[in-house]
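Protein modeling request. Please complete all fields; requests missing the sequence field cannot be processed.
Requester role: graduate student
Desired output: 3D structure, token encoding
Chains: 1
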Amino acid sequence: AGHAWAVRVPEGAMRRASVVALLLLATLLHGSAWAQRGAPDQVFTATVERVTDGDTVVFPQGVCRLLGIDAPEKAQPLGPEAGRTLSELLGDRPVLVLAWGKDKYGRMLCLVLAEDGYLANMTLVESGLALVYMADRLFLKDGLEAAQARAKADRRGVWGLKQFEPPWEYRARIRGKGR
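Delivered output (179 residues):
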């Protein structure tokens, strides 16, 4: 099965890709949906310094939390696989990063477009290695939810497990034990 939201970027064109990606994303989405989030605060190309888990990437410009998704924690089933998959998807080639503000931990909230044109956020959801999370105001909400529905129907990733605790519930439970 192919990946949804694939945008092919010609080899060696990442320097021009930021403008192309913004225009392409704007045309993929209807105007009112785009306006919900507005233009990104930052757009840059960078090589990944490290992937800390399935939804967090460190770039020279700072730490990026992938927008609209939540991957299993490292201690959860498929948590390590989510991190490995993200690392393999982004590789050691420059990627395009679109960032909208920061979360309460100071991480940039990002969409990350891999060199091969796949949106990392969407690819992780479609593979069942991340769940849609806090996407209500995100212009890609419908696309993320459709990708999650496909993963669930095909029992990919976490959807193929007998039991799975969403990462946000897992974190809340673990925090509650430390009191």
